[in-house]
């Protein structure tokens, strides 16, 4: 061993020596900031050596001399930075030659030192190997010595045993053994009892509560049989204390079950309590644990989201409801979600506890004590206790949430954040319904009050926002996909399953409601319920369960070119894409060179107006996008509708009020389109349907705030504050340019976007009726669809009639008709010139319509309505021009029929509209000239669609020679005009 120690000492000395010599290697410069120069002696020494070296530049120095020239600082054992040391030597005025000389000197020293170190290592390597060989030999000798010692000791023990044991010793030991044998059994029992506490603790740490209680009871039984020993009395008392502590550990483990249910652990606990005969007491204790866990968990969550200043007051007695008021607005939703998740774990644990008891009824085989009657009584007690615990637990959960919701004012929340709050609360109510069949009335009441307060202010803001959108809308087409529907919007994603489910139930005529116990109220099925889906991990309140995908509704203008382009420059468009588009600079849409695109348009199920003429007039140009016509404002209204329906779905108690507000969005949109685009309509009597007139009048009365007169001091009433101001069209919309048919594109986009909005609302009708199926005011939904939505398409005619009345030069036509001689006797074979004039005007209209259709899709319905409005205006003008003739002979009447027949025949070549509408209006009027005087009064009463002037002209021309009849019929016309039957 001494040799080994000597070797270690010598070897460590060698390593230290080599380490000191290795410090001479030159390191890279350090990045730290240089410290001030404090040691000037080293600098002077280096200078002297440099001078000495410079004096002998040609002298060749040996390695030992070079080693002697190494500065002493390099041999210091403390931390030493050679780079910093060398940099300190450099003067402020740099000399390149000196630096090079110094660098060369250091390189030579480094080589010598490295060479010296390597030589030392090679020299000592042989000595090191020899020393290791000596150590191995020494170990071999030590092993031999140890073997000899062991053999000697073994032989000595054998001799001692054989030579010193006598017969008397054998007899004495035998007698002692007989005396101690009886005592040994008792001592072993006492020893086992003493060690039982440790073993019981091991069993408890391994959650083997049944085995621990079984062993503890066995120990108590054994201790009672050994009462003759004085030590056993103290041991019995210790076992009793151990039993009490074990029951406390059982209670602690039972409390942990409330937050995380473990089936194996809970089975062990129930078996342990069954052995103790305290199964009913365990259920009572479990109920207390669940109640306490709900309160403590809710308080813990709130504390985690409250700032430290507020937490300082908790110690002074601040309660849960006061603490909830200190949660900041930005933390309200995360805190609510965490509160839902935390309490969900407790509710889920109780649900799993109840399922466990349903599967594992107590019985004799389970180790429970007592008779069959007692076991049956215990099972019934557990069942009733679990049911009462469910109601109590859910009541406590509602109380925690209601307190939290009432503690904050949600009026300042954004609508998306408020919907998220409603979504969490709605999901919580679904959990309550599945948990214990509760409708969560207390929770519904608290969230309803918050919702009513919030939505009232939000809806006023939405109407005001819609007014701003409408007043700044340019009424240009927003390109969307051909199959676009409101369900593709982000706001409808959470409603998609509910709406489809309601439609499915409507088709199948099923009695079952979509919101059954295993199905959420929004109609989306939850397979097996929340407790089955999130039993092991996760919760129904995780953000990952909500659909937050991005929407994709805009049309791809590369695949489907349209007349809609942004104002941005095309410099960012790749060159390979620019080659497929040609901008002609005249409003035409782009040209696409793909043959597949042409095939897609040919196979489109949408009908383009007058396809033959469109093909001739649009050669070299691509066809416009044939998707639905809508505007950004239309999308805004649909998005608001989606948000409103989300609130209706999440909170059924305010669904009817929210849907009524939703209808106001559509009403205001309808009213604005009518106000903007029918202001230049001259005659509205024959163009508005009765239902549309009543609808607009009702909207104006219920929704539109009357404008104040200038210098008026009249205060706005409370009802008027809820109304919306009269909208005004944006000044950028030009409806007076005849080149673009007086804003035809804007009018078409406006009306068709309204019709599209009505179609989308009509598709949502089954779901809206489903939401309010239990409401006493559900008839308002049906009334809305019958009176509001159904009349949207009726607005086409008056809006498009504004274009027709301004496109045609009706005044010139009336002047030309006024110059026609209607008193001719013979029937003429040539029609009048005004017919050619009006047909030429209509041809110009047709060409301009085709020009507009080259960059804006005109559907067949729009095309038919445009021509229908044009024909109505022409027919009214025909009748008005005929009524200007005070005298008309038989030949003049024939000429009227000839002119109108010529007009109709040429018109049929200009349009595909069949049959030509409103021509009976002219034909019936002309034929009335041939009626006998005695039938004329009946005809007048049966045709109130003509004006009093037109009827008076008819009477004067028909009864030229009968003054008495003429006066009588004039009186009839005046009477009808007085009672309002004719105008």
Helical content stands at: 55-70%
Q: Uncertain runs with pLDDT below 50, 5 residues or more?
A: 1-8, 17-58, 313-317, 364-368, 510-527, 544-549, 557-622
Strand order of the largest sheet: 1-2
Number of helices: 37
What structural category do the secondary elements indicate?
mainly alpha
Measured between the Cα atoms of the first and last residue, the distance is 135 Å
Using only C-alpha atoms, the radius of gyration works out to 51 Å
Q: Give the strand tally.
A: 2
Largest sheet: 2 strands, parallel
State the shape.
elongated
Mean pLDDT reading: 76
User: What is the beta-strand fraction?
Assistant: under 5%
GO biological process, one term: protein transport
InterPro entries: Syndetin_C, VPS50, VPS54_N
Pfam families: Syndetin_C, Vps54_N
Region (Disordered): 21-58, 710-729
Describe what you observe in this structure:
This protein has 983 residues and is mostly helical. 64% of the residues lie in helices and 0% in strands. The protein has 37 helices and two strands. The protein has helices at 2-22, 40-55, 63-68, 82-89, 96-164, 167-205, 209-224, 230-256, 263-276, 279-304, 308-311, 320-324, 332-359, 372-406, 415-436, 441-471, 496-508, 530-533, 575-578, 595-602, 611-617, 632-650, 655-677, 690-702, 718-721, 744-763, 765-771, 779-787, 796-807, 810-818, 833-853, 860-883, 890-910, 919-927, 933-942, 948-958, 963-978, and strands spanning 704-705, 724-725. The protein has a two-stranded parallel sheet. α25 (718-721) links the parallel β1 (704-705) and β2 (724-725). α1 packs antiparallel against α5 (96-164), α6 (167-205) packs across α7 (209-224) and α31 (833-853) packs parallel to α33. The longest helix has 69 residues, at 96-164. The radius of gyration is 51 Å and the shape is elongated. It starts with a helix and ends in a 5-residue tail after the last helix.
């Amino acid at each position: 061993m001494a040799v080994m120690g000597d070797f270690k000492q010598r070897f460590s000395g060698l390593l230290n020596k080599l380490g000191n010599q290795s410090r001479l290697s030159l390191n890279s410069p350090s990045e730290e900031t240089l410290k001030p120069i404090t040691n000037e002696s080293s600098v002077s020494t280096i200078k002297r050596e440099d001078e000495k070296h410079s004096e002998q530049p040609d002298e060749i120095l040996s390695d030992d001399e070079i080693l002697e020239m190494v500065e002493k600082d390099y041999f210091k054992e403390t931390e030493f930075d050679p780079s910093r040391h060398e940099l300190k030597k450099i003067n402020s005025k740099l000399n390149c030659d000196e630096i090079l000389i110094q660098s060369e000197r250091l390189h030579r020293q480094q080589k010598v030192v490295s060479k010296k170190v390597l030589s030392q290592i090679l020299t000592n390597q042989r000595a090191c190997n020899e020393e290791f060989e000596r150590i191995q030999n020494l170990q071999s000798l030590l092993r031999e010595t140890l073997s000899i010692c062991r053999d000697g000791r073994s032989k000595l023990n054998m001799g001692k045993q054989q030579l010193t044991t006598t017969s008397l010793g054998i007899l004495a030991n035998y007698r002692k053994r007989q005396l101690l044998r009886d005592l040994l059994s008792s001592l072993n029992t006492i020893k086992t009892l003493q060690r039982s506490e440790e073993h019981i603790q091991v069993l408890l740490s391994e959650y083997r509560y049944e085995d621990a209680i079984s062993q503890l009871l066995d120990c108590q039984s054994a201790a009672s049989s050994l009462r003759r020993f004085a030590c056993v009395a103290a041991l019995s008392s210790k076992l009793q204390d151990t039993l009490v502590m074990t029951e406390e550990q059982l209670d602690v483990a039972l409390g942990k079950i409330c937050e995380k249910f473990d089936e194996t652990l809970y089975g062990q606990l129930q078996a342990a309590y069954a052995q103790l005969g305290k199964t009913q007491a365990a259920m009572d204790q479990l109920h207390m644990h669940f109640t306490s866990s709900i309160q403590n968990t809710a308080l813990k969550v709130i504390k985690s989201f409250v700032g430290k200043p507020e937490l300082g007051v908790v110690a002074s007695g601040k309660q849960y409801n006061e603490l909830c008021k200190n949660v900041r607005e930005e933390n309200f939703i995360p805190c609510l979600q965490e509160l839902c998740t935390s309490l969900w774990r407790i509710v889920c644990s109780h649900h799993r506890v109840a399922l466990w008891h349903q599967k594992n009824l107590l019985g004799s085989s389970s180790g429970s004590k007592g008779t069959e009657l007692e076991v049956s009584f215990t099972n019934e007690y557990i069942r009733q206790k679990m049911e009462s615990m469910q109601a109590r637990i859910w009541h406590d959960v509602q109380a925690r949430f209601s307190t939290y919701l009432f503690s904050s004012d949600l009026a300042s929340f954004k609508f998306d954040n408020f919907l998220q709050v409603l979504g969490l609360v709605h999901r919580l109510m679904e959990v309550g319904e599945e948990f214990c069949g509760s409708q969560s009335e207390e929770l519904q009441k608290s969230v309803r009050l918050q919702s009513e307060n919030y939505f009232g202010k939000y809806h006023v803001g939405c109407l005001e926002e819609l007014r701003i959108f409408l007043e700044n809308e340019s009424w240009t087409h927003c390109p969307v996909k051909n199959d676009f529907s409101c369900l593709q919007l982000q706001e409808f994603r959470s409603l998609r399953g509910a709406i489809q489910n309601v439609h499915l139930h409507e088709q199948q005529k099923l009695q079952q409601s979509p919101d059954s116990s295993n199905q959420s109220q929004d109609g989306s099925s939850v397979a097996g319920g929340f407790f089955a889906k999130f039993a092991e991990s996760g919760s129904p309140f995780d953000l990952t369960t909500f659909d937050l995908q991005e929407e994709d509704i805009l049309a791809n203008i590369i695949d489907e070119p349209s007349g809609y382009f942004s104002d941005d420059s095309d410099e960012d468009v790749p060159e390979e894409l620019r080659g497929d588009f040609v901008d002609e600079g005249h409003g035409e849409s782009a040209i696409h060179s793909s043959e597949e695109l042409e095939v897609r348009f040919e196979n489109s199920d949408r009908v383009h107006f007058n396809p033959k003429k469109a093909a001739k007039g649009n050669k070299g140009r691509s066809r416009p996008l044939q998707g639905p016509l809508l505007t950004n404002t239309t999308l805004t209204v649909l998005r608001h509708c989606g948000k409103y329906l989300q609130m209706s779905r999440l909170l059924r108690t305010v669904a009817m009020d929210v849907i009524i507000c939703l209808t106001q969005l559509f009403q205001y949109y309808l009213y604005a389109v009518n106000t903007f685009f029918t202001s230049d309509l001259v005659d509205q009597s024959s163009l508005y349907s009765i239902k549309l007139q009543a609808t607009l009048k009702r909207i104006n009365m219920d929704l539109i705030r009357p404008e104040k007169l200038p210098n008026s001091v009249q205060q706005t009433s409370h009802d008027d504050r809820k109304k919306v101001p009269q909208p005004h069209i944006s000044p950028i919309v030009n409806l007076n340019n005849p080149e673009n048919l007086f804003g035809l594109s804007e009018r078409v986009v406006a009306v068709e976007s309204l019709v599209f909005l009505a179609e989308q609302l009509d598709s949502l009708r089954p779901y809206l009726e489903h939401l309010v199926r239990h409401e006493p005011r559900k008839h308002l939904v049906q009334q809305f669809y019958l009176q509001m939505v159904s009349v949207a398409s009726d607005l086409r005619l008056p809006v498009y009639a504004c274009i027709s009345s301004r496109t045609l030069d009706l005044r010139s036509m009336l002047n030309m008709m006024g110059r026609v001689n209607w008193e001719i006797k013979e029937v003429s074979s040539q029609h009048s010139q005004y017919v050619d004039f009006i047909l030429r005007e209509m041809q110009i209209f047709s060409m301009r319509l085709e020009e507009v259709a080259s960059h804006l899709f005109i559907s067949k319905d729009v095309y038919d309505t445009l021509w229908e409005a044009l024909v109505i205006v022409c027919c009214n003008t025909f009748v008005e021009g005929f009524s200007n003739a005070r005298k008309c002979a038989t030949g003049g009447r024939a000429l009227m029929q000839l002119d109108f027949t010529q007009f109709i025949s040429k018109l049929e070549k200009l349009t595909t509209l069949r049959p030509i509408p409103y021509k009976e209006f002219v034909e019936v009027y002309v034929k009335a000239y041939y009626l006998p005087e005695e039938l004329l009064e009946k005809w007048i009463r049966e045709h109130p669609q003509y004006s009093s002037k037109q009827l008076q002209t008819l009477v004067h021309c028909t009864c030229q020679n009968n003054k008495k009849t003429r006066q009588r019929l004039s009186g009839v016309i005046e009477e009808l005009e007085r009672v309002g039957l004719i105008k």
